[in-house]
Amino acid sequence: MDELYNEDELLAHLKEKSKHRMRRVIEKMTDYERGYKQALDDISSPQAVVAERWSLSECPRCAENFRDYEPCDDGYYKRAMSMLRCPYCGQKLDWSKVN
Ligand SMILES: [Zn+2]
């Protein structure tokens, strides 16, 4: 009888332990999901393109310039304003403040 009692106790203890572990796993998943969602939100919120005079436009996130998309004519870069996202990192672009 004593043995059975101990087994029950052990089971209860293991159950409690695994419950605690599962809770931690769920908390970690929630952190991960939160981070993932934040990254998606960030990349999908338009950010102002960096466009200095006499220079190629640049991505506000990864800082790559758009040399392959902006032909230069007499010192004027033809801005790639139809580009909705950075071709390198996927950041959504806001061209509204660029002349
Ligand atoms: Zn980028």
Number of domains: 2
Strand content: 5-15%
What small molecules are bound in this structure?
zinc ion
- What value does the average pLDDT take? 90
Shape: rod-shaped
Based on helices, strands and strand pairing, what is the structural class?
mainly alpha
The major sheet is characterized as: 2 strands, parallel
Strand order of the largest sheet: 1-4
Order of helices and strands: HEEEE
- What proportion of the residues is helical, as a percent range? 40-55%
What count of helical segments does DSSP give?
Answer: 1
Head-to-tail CA distance between termini: 86 Å
Low-confidence stretches: none
Number of beta strands: 4
Query: Mind telling me the C-alpha Rg?
Result: 27 Å
Produce a short descriptive summary.
The chain has about 100 residues and is mainly α.
Topology:
Layout: H1 2-44, E1 47-48, E2 72-73, E3 76-77, E4 93-94
Parallel strand pairs: 1-4
Antiparallel strand pairs: 2-3
What does this structure look like?
This protein has two domains: 1-44; 46-99, no CATH class. The strands form two sheets. Strands 1-4 form a two-stranded parallel ribbon. It has a two-stranded antiparallel ribbon with strand order 2-3. It is mainly α. It has one helix and four strands. A hairpin with a 2-residue loop joins strand 2 and strand 3 (76-77). The longest helix is centred in the first third of the chain and has 43 residues, at 2-44. The structure holds zinc ion.
